[in-house]
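Ticket #4471: structure export looks truncated?
Reporter: QA, pipeline team
Priority: medium

Steps to reproduce: submit the single chain below to the structure queue and open the exported record.
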Amino acid sequence: ASALGWGMKPDVRQARHWLAEAVRRGSDDATAWQKACGAQASIACLTKQKDFTPLPIGAATPDAAPEPTFETRAAVLTTELDAAIVQGSEFAVFEGFRALEEHYLLYSKMDLYLATKVRSLAVKETAIRARLGSADNYFGLIESSCLWSSAAQEAIGGGRPEAGLFFAKVAVNKLQDARKRIADLDPAIRECFVKVHQDRYRYLADIFMGMGRFGEAEHVLAMLKDFETYNYTRDRRREGEAFERMPLDAAQSASLTAFDAATAALAQAGAARDRLVALQAKGELTSDQRAELEAATTALRASQSAFRTQLAALGDTVAGLDAKQAP
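Actual output as written to the record:
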């Protein structure tokens, strides 16, 4: 925040972005500075804060290559991401999305960021399904909840509270779905998961509190209390209430339905091809299996193309949640 917010001249947008990122990563100093100056902090306010020291970058280096333009860098990152997706490396895909998202955040291109984040979430959820064999796996649901809550924090930090609210609600509901998966475990084993859920409920409640959405925050804290109570009483008469989900409005529900349909179709197409590729690795395929593999590969490409189109439209919809507030 100090370096990018100062540089050759004050750049308040970059200072705000990196200050929010420092807060998200747990910096006590950054939290104190943001509390004093607000999310829309000014350079003048920040420079008055204790221990906030602007770090001038200095004069330009003679004969140094110019920094790539926003468009040039975005094109390079997009090409690298597309290559990672084709290669199928989950780590490379994760890093590719992270780099592209940070690039858009750095330049406050929030529409592009949200479109990329929605696609990122969909690709990562598809990978979770493939890795764990189901969308309903406990660990997959916890991982998914963390991904959506991180997206909420970034959207809020970028000045898109309605998109952040949507992401946060989905994160809560993923956590509630995960909770169902431990309900019938032996008490001694279930106890191991209690602390994880307590921390996640409190973290998500803090997100809503930071947005000034006190009703939603109270709802999440009530879920936490109910979780703790139900965990010990096991009152089956309250089972439906115990696993209730946070309600979504019509636009949020439509967005989530479209998201789930797109990821499910891509996962199904990928699983069909993966099964045949696994057989191929073990030995020679029959002529029927080779034809089936060719058809499955064609179907997967078509599914990937449709996936891109669907997610692009969904990204526009999520960006439009804050249409009236967008700069």
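Status: closed, not a bug. The export was complete when the record was re-opened. Leaving a note from the reviewer for reference: The mean pLDDT is 78.
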